[in-house]
Amino acid sequence: MAVVHTGPVSVQPIKEQISEQIPDARVINIVDDSLLSDVRAAGHVTPEVASRIHSYMANAQGMRVDIILNACSSVGEAVDSVRNFISTPIVKIDEAMAEEASFIGSHIGVIATVSTTLEPTVRLVKKKAGELRRAVEVTVRIAEGAFEALLSGDGARHDEIVKSAISILATQVDVVVLAQVSMARLVPQLERVCVPVLSSPRSGVAALKRALGNLPKVSAPSSNR
Predict the structure, then answer these.
(1) In terms of domains, do 75 and 116 share one?
(2) N or C: which end of the chain has fewer CB within 10 A?
(3) What GO MF annotations does this protein's record show (predicted)?
């Protein structure tokens, strides 16, 4: 399988989940840390970013991988168009999480440390809720300064900012969605939060595993005796 990342912070969390859930997988990580920087600078996915995402996934298909995982919610909508041109199955890391949130409650909180992730995640949550015929209301929050702290190496500061923002948001909603893979490491520290807190690596890799299981089996060639 190939995993397409827009920065280094998503590599380890997803690697850990794949090792746990699909231990025999061979993983090719494709990392371009300029993608998220360009999206943040523009405030949205640009045609150039979408083109590079398409190129990386086409390259992954050229490597003959069985499946591709998109690791970044900020570029998830660009991946939707890539699916029209790439025959290799593509799983988005956050689709299963958005679906699960829609099952849990009608008032969903979405929290991010990068503003460009918020709107795509909200649209995805509403899309999944619509597919399930569930009416939802979404409240959003930005954990200001957390992502910058993480990039500067101050993980403790990042965690403090995000946990504080989650605690406040949890009092207003039925379930909290962590919009970025980089926030998932906080889940074990959130046991006292009054509502469920969902992160994408575990459910996203579980969806990846299910998709792998649904792929057509390739029969070994029979030998003539």
Answers:
(1) no
(2) C
(3) amino-acid racemase activity
